[in-house]
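Retro notes (design track)

What went well: tokenization of the new backbones is finally stable.
What didn't: we kept losing track of which sequence belonged to which structure.
Fix going forward: every design gets posted as structure first, then sequence, in one message. First example under the new rule, 117 residues:
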């Protein structure tokens, strides 16, 4: 079971890397007002959602303690991120504040995962 959990943690990290990497590659464009949500950002957020749900289930099945408040907050942030990216995915440019919000929420989600023990 541990190998399976570690596999999904790795996939979860790949998802966050795709989401944050897509944001970081658009930082220069954000300064110019031409940033857009690239497909990798949507795919990364969806990967995070699926692997996160699987990780919660696997950890509960393996009798590990799961902090439901932490998971609930991370899920709420991810749903907001997914909503913003999904709705604006086909637009040529995205408002700087909306694009920055996705980056801030993504970073917040990472820090909650790492620092909240």
């Amino acid at each position: 079971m541990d190998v399976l959990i570690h596999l999904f943690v790795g996939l979860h990290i790949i998802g966050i890397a795709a989401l944050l990497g897509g944001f970081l590659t658009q930082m220069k464009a954000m300064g110019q007002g031409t940033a857009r949500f690239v497909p990798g950002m949507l795919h990364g957020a969806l990967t995070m959602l699926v692997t996160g749900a699987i990780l919660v289930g696997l950890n509960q099945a393996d009798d590990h303690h799961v902090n439901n408040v932490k998971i609930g907050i991370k899920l709420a942030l991810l749903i907001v991120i997914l909503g913003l990216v999904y709705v604006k995915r086909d637009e040529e440019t995205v408002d700087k504040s909306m694009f920055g919000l996705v980056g801030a929420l993504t970073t917040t989600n990472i820090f909650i995962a790492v620092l909240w023990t």
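Added context from the reviewer: The chain has a mean pLDDT of 96.
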